[in-house]
Request: fold
Amino acid sequence: MILRRLAIALRKQDWFTVLIETLIVVFGVFMGLQVSNWNETRQERVEAHSLLERLERDFEQQLALTERGIARQLLYLEVTGRLINGIRDGELDEETLASDLALVDSVATMPGTSVAFQELVSTGRMRLIRSGELRDQLYAYDSIVSYLVVQYAQITSSVDELGRVIIRAKTLELSGQPSEAFEQLGRVESVDRAVLLEDGEIMDALQGAYITQDNSHLVMIALRARIETILALLAEERGEPVP
Reply:
């Protein structure tokens, strides 16, 4: 309709009408572009909000797993240290010996990668995160954890070696039924104290496992700090006050 009026005005050389109709067309196109941009911006805000919520849930879960892992690793260090000192002194703690031997060849599981972050990268939506610091922290965390996952078998090889040799000193409790909880795994029925005290390979393996467990504890503390930093940056990105 507007184009028809504009054509008529041109034939009549009605320049005032031509100007008005042209301005109406330009304004309509401009408003259409603005509405499109507003809708696109709004959609991006909604998408970014949903994404940040998913990232936050992911890293809250990883923080909880890391906290539990640190607590478990402290227990394993206590157990391994007690056995090393007991063998050195020739005086084993009889009250804790069986339970210590059930736990000593253990190492806590490291936290995992963020599925939400990996999806964000694979779909090319990192632009939705405004903070460069947050992006850097997410990339760094993913790189570190991915490396740890790949190297896990090598990192924990000394603990595996301890499990191989220390079985000589213990007889497992066999109920004939599958375990119903992790606490039931590897329960010790009896201990050969002479083997434990005299087998030098066991002492070497205990000390190697202690170093690995201590290192794993330090790594998890560092990862916990990274996760807490990421959660604080996510809160800032969402505009929430940081506690």
In short: The chain has one domain: 17-237. Residues 79 and 96 are 9 Å apart (CA to CA).
